[in-house]
Amino acid sequence: MKSQDNNDPQQYRYLKFGLLVTGETEELHLPKLFRALMESGYCTFKVLSRIPQLGRITSEKRKPKLTVTGTNKAISTKHTDLIALPARRHLNEANTYVILVDDLEYHNQEQPQEVFDRYRDILDSLPPEQRHRASVHFLVNMLEAYYLAHAEAVNLVLGTSFANYPGDVETIRNPYSEIKKEYSDFDKKEHGGKIIENLNVEYVLSRPDTCASLRTLFKWCSKCLGESPTDKYQLVNGILNDITKPQIEDIP
Known about the structure:
Elements: E1 15-21, H1 24-29, H2 35-38, E2 43-50, E3 66-67, E4 74-75, H3 80-91, E5 96-103, H4 112-123, H5 128-131, E6 134-139, H6 144-147, H7 151-158, H8 175-182, H9 190-198, H10 201-204, H11 212-224, H12 246-249
Helix pairs in contact: 7-9
């Protein structure tokens, strides 16, 4: 893979993607989800920090008061440093990108734009030269949903007999509970890590009418790497998440 540098279009860069995550399983195992990208030898993914999970604000008293410099956008004061500081430290290095990844759980799905904006406003408080290198993406409704799009990986680890979910796994209200129904001892951290190691993301994203949010995340990474969209991950014709996809266009 080649990623273009503004000063030298022919220069190959080794990109370092830093992950800000909100869950224990993601903190332990999420870099494995990007295994196929790392196999190219031109990038790596690592967790920078586990951060607080921010939902939509429902009380007027809790509305943030500060604004991003030069804008009228309000930002949270309580959690800004926990998110912005590790992002800024990572982005101070050359050839770096930051991805904030959160579960968009069922109770937040009525107002996903509000959840996105809370995180995005914090990242927009970064210096201007860093903002486009930081993005927010959702796992819908949670990481475990994607296991059910590649049931072979689940069955290999748990010895179950799941079939691939026939619809869009991002519509499953509680994928964790669905797995627990068949395997009551399912442990997100222990078994989840092994499943991710066997999960074929290209297969998960092989249907262009499903997994809009996960595909948007991979398309953002692909754009950072300087790749042109292809049928791999269905990046040409596959559906994207309407809320997170504008970040792709922000990458120079």
